[in-house]
TrEMBL record:
Name of the protein in question: DUS-like FMN-binding domain-containing protein
Source organism phylogeny: Bacteria, Pseudomonadati, Pseudomonadota, Gammaproteobacteria, Enterobacterales
All copies of domain DUS-like FMN-binding, residue ranges: 1-147
Pfam family, one: Dus
Keywords per UniProt: Flavoprotein, FMN, NADP, Oxidoreductase, RNA-binding, tRNA processing, tRNA-binding
Organism this protein belongs to: Escherichia coli
Organism domain of life: Bacteria
Coiled-coil stretches: none
InterPro entries listed in its UniProt record: Aldolase_TIM (IPR013785), DUS-like_FMN-bd (IPR035587), DusA (IPR004653), tRNA_hU_synthase_CS (IPR018517)
Cofactor requirements of the protein: FMN
């Protein structure tokens, strides 16, 4: 959750549970590739920790996943669940649920360059597409690219 699961929150959560998988705030591919800050920084005590990525360009996501694996992250998590207007205007987050094939392509691009798990954060549906059938179709399309968990 943006502005919540920062390093301080993850430190506190790690005090409560030593083995729970923790997630970073969503970090966009643009911030990692072009940003001046170290958006991949975390404390070794946070392990296991997953980097939650926001983006829709398979090549950029693959580049960021590779960087994250090199930095020691335990998992990559693609965020297709954030409903924020700001996020959706950037073509990532929940709006990606409307294009399961693009999400599958993004997952495949990341899976092709890393050996750590690539998972997907999703919602039940978007807008008027929130039926059980819609969710099953989305999951089936994306899971075919090797996603171990949603």
């Amino acid at each position: 959750m943006l502005d919540w699961t920062d390093r301080h929150c993850r430190y506190f959560l790690r005090l409560l549970s030593r083995n729970t998988l923790l997630y970073t705030e969503m970090v966009t591919t643009g911030a990692i590739i072009h940003g001046k800050g170290d958006y991949l920084a975390y404390s070794e005590e946070e392990h296991p920790v997953a980097l939650q990525l926001g983006g829709s360009d398979p090549a950029a996501l693959a580049q960021c996943a590779k960087l994250a694996e090199a930095r020691g992250y335990d998992e990559i998590n693609l965020n297709v669940g954030c409903p924020s207007d700001r996020v959706q205007n950037g073509m990532f987050g929940a709006c990606l649920m409307g294009n399961a094939q693009l999400v599958a392509d993004c997952v495949k691009a990341m899976r092709d360059v890393v050996s750590i798990p690539v998972t997907v954060k999703t919602r039940i549906g978007i807008d008027d597409q929130d039926s059980y059938e819609f969710l099953c179709d989305f999951i089936n399309t994306v899971s075919g690219k090797g996603v171990p968990g949603f």
